[in-house]
Amino acid sequence: MFTALDAGLLGRARKQGLIEIHPHDLRPHGLGNHRQVDDTPYGGGSGMVMRPEPIAAALEAVTAAAPGLTRILMTPQGELLDQATVRELATLRPGLLLIAGRYEGFDERVRAMVDRELSIGDYVLSGGELAAMVVIEAVARLVPGVLGNPESLAEESFAANTLEYPQYTRPEEFQGMRVPEILLSGDHGKIKRWRETESRKRTARRRPDLTADRRPT
Ligand code: ADE
Fold first, then answer.
1. pLDDT digits (tens, 9 = 90+) for 56-70
2. How far is the CA of 1 from the centre of ligand 1 (A)?
């Protein structure tokens, strides 16, 4: 699940020492001979529930080695992740401690051990690992030096609660579709205004919920 940590942008950023990511296994903190980390739910019902003790022990071990991390539980019941939250997470020092559970859920008492709960969307994964990877990837690219071209951050989708304008590269014509003439004009003022208009139109058409200005940027 965490092999992506060594690939691409993340792999390079880690090698360069721009970011540190340390995956920890809950299993050594499990209970009994089988190092059990989950159990059947009180009151009955299907599925298994993550027990609180292995998570508490893992948090204690990680915190002893790296104090002060913001503890985040990955769960579909958490606050929905968006770019504003990603930006906020990227400012937190010394960093984040992401907790990924497998199985059907966490014992409710795990909630008392964390600072916040995050969901990456209204769908259910069978474990929080990939959700944690999404947070890691989205936050890491905002860490100074990780992205090759930081200017692109200002333009990209959600930078100002809008979707990005349409982009084109070579060729000028592809399967009968031409690059808009204005982008070839060299008139940077006109191009800037066209992009702003297209960005606004696209956001209104595809994501009117963003225009509702839920959150100032
Ligand atoms: N674990 C399972 N589903 C999840 C989701 N949508 N977001 C965060 N963690 C999860």
1. 999 999 999 999 999
2. 14
State how far the Cα of 63 lies from the Cα of 99, in Å rounded to an integer: 13
Pocket lined around ligand 1, Cβ cut-off 6 Å: 74-76, 119-121, 123-125, 128, 131
pLDDT, tens digit (0-9, with 9 covering 90-100), for 90-116? 999 999 999 999 868 999 999 999 999
Sign of CA dihedral 86, 103, 114, 99: negative
- 3-class secondary-structure state, position 41: coil
* Nearest atom within ligand 1 for CA of residue 128: 1
Cα distance between residue 88 and residue 212, in whole Å? 21
Residue 5 CB neighbours (<10 A): 19
* C-alpha distance from residue 17 to each of 11, 21, 95 (Å): 10, 10, 14
Which residue's CA is minimally distant from atom 4 of ligand 1? 76
Residue 56 tokens, joined: 């508490």
Q: Is 144 helix (H, G, I), strand (E, B) or coil?
A: coil
Query: Using CA atoms, how far apart are residues 204 and 214, in angstroms rounded to an integer?
Result: 14
Distance 140 CA to ligand 1 centre (A): 19
> pLDDT by residue (tens digit) across 7-56?
999 999 999 999 999 999 999 999 999 999 999 999 999 999 999 999 99
For the chain, state the CA radius of gyration. Answer: 22
